Amino acid sequence: MGTTATHDVAKLDIEELLATRLLVQGNSGSGKSHLLRRLLEQSARWVQQVVIDPEGDFVTLAETFGHLVVDADRSEGELVGIANRIRRHRVSCVLTLEGLEIDDQMRAAATFLNALFEADREHWFPVLVVVDEAQMFAPAAGGEVAEDARRAALGAMTNLMCRGRKRGLAGVIATQRLAKLAKNVAAEASNFLMGRTFLDIDMARAADLLGMDRRQAEQFRDLRRGSFVALGPALSRRPLPVTIGPVETGARSSSPKLMPLPDKPADVEDLILTPAPEDFARPPTPRRATPAPRATADIMEELSRAASIQETGPEPEKPGRRPPMSGEEKEQWVAETLAGIAAGPDSAFRSDSELYQDFLMRGRMRRITGAPLSMSDFRLRLAIARSGVDAETAGSEAWRTALVLAERVTDDLQGVFLMLAHAAIRSAPCPSDAEIARAYGTHSTRRARRFLDYFEEQGLIVLHTDHLGKRLAAFPDFDAQTLGGDADAPLAEESGNVEAAE
Q1: What does the pLDDT average to over 324-331?
Q2: Considering the entire predicted model, what is its pTM?
Q3: CATH architecture assigned to 2-244
């Protein structure tokens, strides 16, 4: 792959990689695409390759290494047929998604990956499946994309990383930010190449994956372009700085370079402002009409009119069918359902998108039409449910302040923050590292301590210890703090298991 800090050759064991998968992380411009290209070029002779290419950067592999370039702008049936024949005949290919909208990119990639995954058993030959910009196809949270496209892409990526090994598929995924990548997809990789990154939360996650402490995580800010820290059975048993070597092929796009402007022509005004004939032939772009602001009284009048229509003309109920819920009943159902999901034994270790689908399915079972909550509202309400807040505390001014402060942290940390805030408002002991880790969905207590450091760096909490050495968390914005808590205390059920064993 390149050279180490001691100028030794840095190698990657392809056979081991086929069984253990690889995750590459680094900010834009850190050299991820260069690393993937080096890996593809060095292993092209030894293993079949499939590249999911959102920007069309890897199509140049075709000229030197004979990869088949597949344009993803095809029907679903065509993509399935091509994928089946690729596995049957063991042809390396690049699926270029360039030119497609993000929703169509996700659908095409999902169709192609699923077809590779579902190939006949006699065609389960080893394939290196490289996915660039993996956060697009396995997002940690729902964005402004169609829900069906997001679910299809996330399911295909989960199959690739979780179940693909037995079918010969070895996933190599690259992402700009670990925080944007679905946890259940990232967690399946056993090999890591971590490049330059600047955000504290991403550095903490990268350091945790590599078994580093917080001080060592600072090195990710100082990495040069093309330099990575490697760890894994296919790379190194200890974190190893690696500089990626040169490549034979180049991307069609490259980083922008400074170029001097041409000499300004004398007639620049006429040159630019004089219309050309094709300008008049081009159809005008329709302008979106800006809706006029509506008064609150008008909205209330429409709602009252709709309510009166429902009261005067109710739809006849079908025998044995549940009547539709009122607004109050629906809100009560939402609260009870969220509490049930949050109380599940594996709730914290399941992705928010998976829990959201469970929530929607329960709603359909109760004949609720549409989505009772949007994805963002569901995530916040679930974080509140996980915090264990009671009705009295939820009505306090301090809790309302805590909800406002929670918007300053990432979605995945809101539940942890609100749990700490609830403990402070109720003057309860500060949660232990094990409790914080479970609230986040991890078993790493070291990661839990980093979350507290992150909150303190953001100015949200102040950590200190009492005279017994127990940890306290104070919230300056609403003048409350927890009681002293044992940071190393085990979970309640683990403590109970130990006592039962004794």
Answers
A1: 71
A2: 0.53
A3: 3-Layer(aba) Sandwich (3.40)
